[in-house]
Amino acid sequence: MPIKSRIRTIPHYPHDGIMFRDITTLLKDPIGLRATIQEITKRYEGVKIDKVVGIEARGFIVGTPVAYELGVGFVPVRKQNKLPAETVGRDYQLEYGSDRIEIHMDAIQPGDRVLLIDDLIATGGTALAAVNLIQDMGGKILECCFVIDLPDVGGRARLEANGQKVFALCEFAGD
Ligand code: AMP
Fold it and tell me: What is the SS3 assignment for 56?
């Protein structure tokens, strides 16, 4: 397990009860970094993709090299007020309160075939907001791809119930 074994768990970060899955230990390791990018790239080689969209911030780290390897462009989805040009946004619910993600209005063309990437799926709220944003712009999501799935939290099932295909390199279940 070159990937899962290199992910560090920090209990009770950033809040009591959260098991934080830290990919910095995976990324700093040359075998781990290479395996992560290669495994994702291998899955999508030969698939017609127009853009990789990565979600701030760890989705940028994983998404950009995947886009580079696939020979397609990379588009960032960012938190509110971070992108300089005209944006479209989506609000989504957090456990307490809400948040907003945005994308440049000219980043996705109608009909674009998009691979969505983030480091981790928990509740799926962030990914679902990004899916909705891209679909509103006329993009077609081929798959939502993550390094880590937390199946007990239910985000994968939520995305699938929404008609999305989901792929994750590893999962942490049962703790
Ligand atoms: P969610 O919208 O609940 O699916 O949360 C996904 C986002 O929150 C991802 O961008 C993750 O980076 C971050 N996140 C949520 N839970 C964790 C966790 N247990 N460990 C690390 N990151 C997490």
Answer: coil
Q: How many domains does the chain have?
A: 1
CA nearest ligand 1 atom 17, residue: 20
| Per-residue pLDDT tens digits for 9-50 | 999 999 999 999 999 999 999 999 999 999 999 999 999 999
Of 58, 60, 68, 53, residue with least CA distance to 104: 53
What span, in angstroms and rounded, lies between the C-alpha atoms of 32 and 6?
A: 7
Alpha carbon of 28 to ligand 1 centroid (Å): 20
Q: Specify if 135 maps to a domain.
A: yes
Instruction: Provide the residue range defining the domain that includes 112.
Output: 47-171
Distance of CA 49 to the CA centre of its chain: 16
Residue 24 in any domain: the answer is no
Residue 6 appears among annotated catalytic residues: no
Residue 27 lies in a domain: no
Domain holding 81: CATH number?
Answer: 3.40.50.2020
| Ligand 1 pocket mutation, candidates 126, 148, 166, criterion most atoms within 8 A of CB | 126
